[in-house]
Amino acid sequence: MRFQISGKQIDVGDALQTHVKGELAETFDKYSQRPTDATVIFSRDAYALTCDAIVHLSTGLNVQAKGTDADNIYAAFEKCRERMDKQLRRYKRRLKDHYKDRSAPVEYDAAPSYVLAADEEEWESQGESGLQPIIVAETELRVPTLSVGDAVMQMELAGTPMLVFRNERHGGVNVVHRREDGNVGWIDPRNLR
């Protein structure tokens, strides 16, 4: 597994790097996962120390976690690792109970992603063309090809409120999202007629 351990305005010493590598390897061995690479970033957020970790699994899914502590960088990492451990435990339980093992890695397609300006006064001042929003940022988004169950797992592992994916069954673009009531919603435009 490849590690990229860095710090934003924090010096990450050899002892911390060795600790991170050992603990992450132990966590992933525990659940028999095959990670390909891990990115761990330590930073200072006001008066707290933060650890953000993203680990890419060989199945194509990502596990993402964050931990904070007031004054100990090792404690911030341990909180991050505990969250990751909990996510992996849930992921393994789902695979064991409900889903088949994925034989091929997840395929990704590229899609444009836009961030639009939220200033309504500026939209209204444009007159008739007020329906044309101002694009603030344009990036490329990776859209995975997954089953609905795998998409829900990926959304939970990444810790995001929504995931756009291409449905394995019919190839159409679908969305899963976390609803306000705590349940997961699934949008399949193919069924909307």
In terms of topology, how is this protein built?
Elements lengths: L1 E7 L5 H17 L4 E11 L2 E10 L4 E8 L3 H25 L9 E10 L3 H5 L10 E12 L1 H11 L3 E6 L5 E6 L5 E4 L6
Parallel strand pairs: 1-2, 6-7
Antiparallel strand pairs: 2-3, 3-4, 5-6, 7-8, 8-9
Helix pairs in contact: 1-2
Radius of gyration: 20 Å
Major sheet details:
5 strands, mixed
CATH topology of the largest domain: Double Stranded RNA Binding Domain
Quick one: CATH superfamily of the largest domain? Ribosome hibernation promotion factor-like
Order of helices and strands: EHEEEHEHEHEEE
Strand order of the largest sheet: 5-6-7-8-9
Low-confidence stretches: none
Structural class based on helices, strands and sheet pairing? alpha+beta
Family: Belongs to the HPF/YfiA ribosome-associated protein family. Long HPF subfamily.
GO cellular component, one term: cytosolic small ribosomal subunit
Protein name: Ribosome hibernation promoting factor
InterPro entries: HPF/YfiA_ribosome-assoc (IPR050574), HPF_long/plastid (IPR034694), RHF-like (IPR036567), RHF/RaiA (IPR003489), Ribosom_S30AE_C (IPR032528), Ribosom_S30AE_C_sf (IPR038416)
Describe the structure.
The chain is of the alpha+beta class. It has two domains: 96 residues, 2-Layer Sandwich (Double Stranded RNA Binding Domain); 85 residues, 2-Layer Sandwich (SHC Adaptor Protein), CATH 3.30.505. The chain is 30% helix and 38% strand. The protein contains four helices and nine strands. The strands form two sheets. A five-stranded mixed sheet has the order 5-6-7-8-9. The chain has a four-stranded mixed sheet with strand order 1-2-3-4. The radius of gyration is 20 Å and the shape is globular. It starts with a strand and ends in a 6-residue tail after the last strand. The mean pLDDT is 80.
